[in-house]
C-alpha cells in the first residue's frame, strides 16, 4: 500500500516537530497535495534543478529538504525567480517538497549532533534556551563607566544575564555620548545650550520578558 503525502508529513513531524522550529523559519509541507500518493522519497540539503533531476530519475515523488525552498512569503508564484521556477517544476512533475530546517537542527540526533561528535566536544549545552522556553529580551542601557559594575551587579541580582547554565552574561562597549540640554532642562552634567560629550558604557544583557514592566 502506498502512503499518502499526509502520512509522510505526519511521520517527519513526529520525529522533528514543526513546533520546535524557530519563529522566523519556514518548515513543513511547501509544495504538494496532502492526499497525493508517495512511493519514494529523496532527501537533500537544498532543492536545486539537479535535485529534481535526481528525483525524476529515481521515481521519487517527495523531496525532503533541509533548507526551505520557499522561505519568505510570496507575492506571486511565477518562473521569474529561482524558487518560483523550482516550485512550479516540482508541482508540474507531481513532486512534493517538505522542509525540516531549524526543527531538525535542534533535535536529538539532528544536524548538529554529528558535528559535535566529530569535534569530540564534551559537556555540550545549548547557547540559548530551546524554542518553547521562557521568552527573553535584550536590554541595552548607557551607564557612566564608574557605575557599570554596580549596575551589572544589580541587574544580575534581579535575574538578568541568565543563559542556560551561565549567570551574569553581558556585553559592554565604551563610547562617547552627546547631548544638548535646552531651556528648562536641568542636566546633572554638562551645560545648557551647548553640545556636551561624555564617556559612557553601553551595557547589554538578556532579561526575562516577564521581568519587564
Secondary structure: number of strands: 9
Helix content: 25-40%
Which H/E pattern describes the elements? Answer: EHEEEHEHEHHEHEE
- Shape descriptor reads elongated
Helix/strand structural class:
alpha/beta
How many helical stretches?
Answer: 6
Number of domains: 2
CATH architecture group name of the largest domain: 3-Layer(aba) Sandwich
CATH fold-level name of the largest domain: Udp-n-acetylmuramoylalanyl-d-glutamate--2,6- Diaminopimelate Ligase, Chain: A, domain 1
End-to-end Cα distance, whole Å, is 58 Å
CATH class of the largest domain: Alpha Beta
Give the radius of gyration. 26 Å
Structural account:
- The strands form 3 sheets. The chain has a 4-stranded mixed beta sheet with strand order 2-6-5-4, with helices on both faces. Strands 7-9-8 form a 3-stranded antiparallel beta sheet, covered by helices on one side. It has a two-stranded antiparallel ribbon with strand order 1-3.
- It folds into 2 domains: 3-105, 3-Layer(aba) Sandwich (Udp-n-acetylmuramoylalanyl-d-glutamate--2,6- Diaminopimelate Ligase, Chain: A, domain 1), CATH 3.40.1390; 136-211, Alpha-Beta Plaits (2-Layer Sandwich), CATH 3.30.70.120.
- The protein starts with a strand and ends in a 5-residue tail after the last strand.
- With 213 residues, the chain is an alpha/beta fold.
- The protein contains 6 helices and 9 strands, in the order E-H-E-E-E-H-E-H-E-H-H-E-H-E-E.
- The mean pLDDT is 89.
Amino acid at each position: 500500500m502506498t502512503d499518502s503525502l499526509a502520512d509522510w508529513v505526519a511521520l517527519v513531524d513526529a520525529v522533528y516537530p514543526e513546533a520546535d522550529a524557530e519563529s522566523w523559519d519556514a518548515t513543513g509541507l511547501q509544495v504538494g497535495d496532502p492526499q497525493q500518493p508517495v512511493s519514494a522519497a529523496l532527501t537533500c540539503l537544498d532543492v536545486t534543478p539537479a535535485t529534481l533531476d535526481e528525483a525524476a530519475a529515481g521515481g521519487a515523488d517527495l523531496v525532503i529538504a533541509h533548507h526551505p525552498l520557499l522561505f519568505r512569503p510570496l507575492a506571486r508564484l511565477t518562473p521569474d525567480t529561482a524558487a518560483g521556477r523550482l516550485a512550479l517544476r516540482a508541482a508540474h512533475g507531481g513532486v512534493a517538497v517538505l522542509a525540516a530546517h531549524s526543527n531538525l537542527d535542534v533535535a536529538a540526533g539532528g544536524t548538529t549532533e554529528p558535528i559535535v561528535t566529530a569535534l569530540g566536544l564534551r559537556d555540550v549545552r545549548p547557547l540559548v534556551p530551546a524554542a518553547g522556553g521562557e521568552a527573553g529580551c535584550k536590554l541595552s542601557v548607557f551607564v557612566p563607566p564608574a557605575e557599570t559594575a554596580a549596575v551589572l551587579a544589580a541587574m544580575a541580582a534581579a535575574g538578568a544575564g541568565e543563559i542556560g547554565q551561565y549567570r551574569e552574561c553581558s556585553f559592554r562597549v565604551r563610547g562617547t555620548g552627546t547631548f544638548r540640554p535646552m531651556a528648562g532642562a536641568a542636566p546633572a552634567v554638562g551645560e545648557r545650550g551647548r553640545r556636551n560629550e561624555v564617556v559612557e558604557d553601553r551595557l547589554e544583557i538578556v532579561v526575562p520578558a516577564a521581568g519587564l514592566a
